[in-house]
Design goal:
Elements lengths: L14 H7 L2 H4 L3 H17 L5 H20 L11 H13 L12 H37 L4 E6 L2 E7 H26 L1 E2 L15 H7 L4 E2 L3 H6 L2 H27 L7 E2 L18 H24 L13 H24 L2 E2 L1 H9 L5 H10 L4 H18 L8 H7 L7 H4 L2 H6 L9 H16 L2 H9 L1
Parallel strand pairs: 3-4
Antiparallel strand pairs: 1-2, 5-6
Helix pairs in contact: 3-4, 3-6, 3-8, 4-5, 6-7, 6-12, 6-19, 7-10, 10-11, 10-12, 11-12, 14-15
């Protein structure tokens, strides 16, 4: 149980204290980032003449060997090491002796763990963005296929006005597009390298922090060593962005669950994303959608936990910050898993066009258009509103739609109604005459779809890679 920092101490740490303090059980998740950062650090030390070229080559070769052996499963990361940093350094020293002990020159575990967490989070952010883009592609495909699929739009879970499935899916497209924009913003803010900050006050060694940052794909080094080792803003921002993603997924899942019910019958979920009942043979349950909805609180919890952890921490590093890892790892894995599963579920879902149209037709969704008809024939809107209210009341008494009333019945309520009303309040007319940008009319939707298609063709990650090159 000997630690790399044990020189100051006269007896070993109590086993219970050691286990409580250790992080190897979870921070082994970023062993690749620890090796990547160590290799960059060693290359910089050699460039600055702090290590010889031979020492650099020996250390880099050994670090790469450690990485390959961990990947192959021939070198196990065990709890005999306090953390992943100790594991890497101890194995390096075992292979190189004194040369291996030079790895940590000009570096502290504080800036080392800050770097590892940033490298890990940066890659997870990019992976999450990729999953969001995959989801947007599925949404765009549905939008392209359903510009004429009429369905009811809702407010207060009550039928309001007729829209199209393309229009409804487009609302979620905008949500997830904003989620990608948030991730891009976080990436830009976080992409600065903390390595070289030391424990909190930098180092006396002539480090080239710009060179290290360049090797690791950062824009440059961080500008304050105290903030560098104690900054977890980027994690809080990422967890906040993931919480927004999960909130959007949860809203979407709630609708899919409703649409899958016997009362709606708007969709049929693929068997691969549904389960049955152990007692009721007729059941086909939307378990994936329900689990995604349920796991949203888990990601929210990680955000609140980290905010609470950070709220009382003075500068600079404190051990409390070790609590950032487990909850962040879990939240990232949860959100990524939910995105992947939801995308597969949505991509295989069948939409029942006729059922959607029938639902729109039966819920007085064209009542506003009937009022607009009267307005266009000179009736003040407030009077038109009251007249159509009487029309709806009559329909409710007869259990029919507005379109089912005869012209005689309509004119008994208002003589302004003429035969052309039926065309004016048809579902197709109600949708198609809404042509302002962002509305469900076909021309407006085709314009939006073209814009969304162009948006997906412009990948910010690819632009970022080209900029670095």
């Amino acid at each position: 149980m000997a630690q790399l920092w044990g020189g100051r101490f006269t007896k070993e740490t109590d086993r219970l204290v050691y286990n409580f303090n250790a992080s190897i059980s979870f921070d082994q998740k970023f062993y690749k980032q620890d090796l990547q950062g160590s290799i960059a650090h060693v290359r910089m030390l050699a460039k600055q003449g702090i290590l010889t070229e031979d020492e650099k080559e020996a250390i880099v070769t050994a670090l790469e060997e450690i990485g390959r052996e961990v990947e192959a499963g021939t070198l196990a990361i065990t709890d005999e090491y306090e953390d992943i940093h100790s594991f890497v350094e101890a194995n390096l020293i075992a292979r190189l002796g004194g040369v291996g002990k030079k790895l940590h020159t000009g570096r502290s575990r504080n800036d080392q763990v800050a770097l590892d967490m940033k490298l890990y989070t940066r890659q997870e952010l990019l992976d999450t963005d990729g999953l969001l883009k995959d989801l947007l592609k599925v949404l765009l495909k549905i939008m392209e296929e359903h510009t004429s699929t009429i369905m009811p739009g809702f407010t207060h879970l009550q039928k309001a006005q007729p829209i199209t499935l393309a229009h409804h899916m487009g609302a979620y497209f905008e949500m997830f597009k904003r989620d990608r924009l948030r991730l891009k913003d976080i990436y830009v803010r976080m992409n600065y390298c903390p390595l070289g900050s030391g424990a909190l006050a930098g180092t006396t060694y002539p480090l080239d922090r710009d060179y290290t940052a360049k090797l690791l794909g950062f824009y440059g080094p961080t500008l304050n060593s105290m903030d560098s080792v104690s900054d977890r803003d980027y994690l809080i921002e990422f967890l906040s962005a993931l919480s927004m993603v999960m909130m959007h997924l949860s809203r979407f899942c709630e609708e899919m669950i409703l649409w899958n019910s016997n009362e709606y019958q708007f969709v049929d979920m693929d068997d691969a994303y549904s389960t049955g009942s152990s007692i009721m043979p007729q059941k086909k349950n939307p378990d994936i959608a329900e689990l995604v909805r349920g796991k949203t609180g888990r990601v929210y919890g990680a955000l609140i936990s980290l905010l609470t952890t950070m709220k009382g921490i003075p500068l600079a590093y404190n051990k409390d910050m070790q609590e950032d890892k487990e909850l962040t790892f879990d939240a990232i894995d949860t959100a990524k898993g939910c995105l992947a599963l939801f995308t597969g579920m949505l991509d295989t879902t069948r939409f029942h066009r006729e059922r959607m149209r029938k639902s729109a037709n039966g819920g007085f969704t064209n009542a506003t258009d009937a009022a607009d008809y009267l307005v266009h024939h000179g009736v003040p809107f407030r009077d038109a509103h009251a007249i159509v209210g009487q029309v709806v009341l009559t329909c409710l008494e007869k259990n029919i739609a507005i379109d089912d009333l005869s012209l005689v019945e309509l004119q008994a309520i208002s003589p302004v109604f003429e035969a052309d009303l039926y065309e004016a309040i048809s579902m197709e007319t109600c949708v198609e005459k809404r042509l302002t940008l962002g509305a469900p009319g076909t021309a407006a939707m085709e314009q939006v779809i073209a814009l969304e298609r162009a948006y997906l063709a412009e990948d910010w990650q690819e632009q970022e890679r080209r900029t670095k090159e």
